Amino acid sequence: MANAQLKEEIVAYSKHIGIDKIGFASVDPFVAFRQRLIEQGKLGFESGFEKGTVEERTTPTLLLPEAKTIISIALAYPSRIKNPPRSIKGDRRGIFCRASWGEDYHHILRRKLEAIEKFIINKFPEAKCVSMVDTGELSDRAVAERAGIGWSGKNCAIITPEFGSYVYLGEMITTISLPADTPIEDQCGTCNKCVESCPTGALIQGGQLDSNKCIAFLTQTKGFLAEKYRKKLGNRLYGCDTCQVVCPENKGKDFHEHKEMEPDPNIAKPKLLPLLTISNREFKEKFGHVSGSWRGKKPIQRNAIIALAHYKEEEALPTLYDLVENDPRPVIRGTAAWALGEIGGKESEDVLSHAKEKEQDEEALKEIMSSLERLATVKKLS
What we know:
Layout: H1 3-16, E1 21-25, H2 31-43, H3 54-58, E2 69-76, E3 95-96, H4 105-123, E4 129-132, H5 140-146, E5 151-152, E6 158-159, E7 167-174, H6 193-197, E8 203-205, E9 208-209, H7 215-218, H8 227-233, E10 236-238, H9 242-245, H10 265-268, H11 272-275, H12 280-287, H13 297-311, H14 317-326, H15 330-343, H16 348-358, H17 362-381
Helix pairs in contact: 13-15, 14-15, 14-16, 15-17, 16-17
């Protein structure tokens, strides 16, 4: 069987199993990407979530020695919620980014890649395949760019002509040699909207991201969120879509072809207050199937507290009082204390004063003292 014919069959099969786009790339080292990674490391722009060494991330044959081809796949996901619930005073809601709507995309793409692997091995039993989605050594974006899935946009996302950047990516390294596709020419041109709109200035320039400033990264951290970023968070619980929403290539793009990706409105935009007291079991039952749950409930709860402060939601005060006084986690106590300083309230000063006397964590105590100072300043001015 000619390799070109096998490629055609794989493409046809991919469409049959619901893959929206597929591309094929060589296993040559990613030389330019390697230099970018080295530069990112020197600048301290890495998130710490990256897997593997620079060499492993840029040399496919280190992951599969006899590798001949990388197959890249893309699945389009929805950008709009049908009948989204309203966030109103007294009943505020947060939001998960679009990449955390529906079933965890890692599972969806792995199933597709497993199906392609079975298809290949059925024809070539001696073939070897290594698949990865997001958490592997290879860069999904670098592979997709080489495979002609789309171009690498200034927002550091792959932008496809058909689906914009609202696509999940995954890839498979295989020992079967297949004809490579041609990369798509960069089409961002002079547009710089994503860079200009980034809430924290994390997009340093087109295509360069300081992960440590990126809200998508910050929402996943488990410690105290630096105060300078708290008011930038808004009502985001996980992730950030700003650089995608402002992209002209995404205008009008909204795809609902995969049932498992459809968002449950009450999970994609959950009520904030119940999140503050949700148990581990309840959190897993309600949110465990979405990608945004992978770091557990603590970051989501911290972000929910910040969101309630953003709204100055007085309905949250009794719960926040309880968290400041009784939660066993310093990050939650301290963040709740900060929120009291933002929202105010007659009892907030008393609660914080009482908490100050027994707080033993240095960072949480710092938040308590800072809030007390702010409340005292407000009282003087009123």
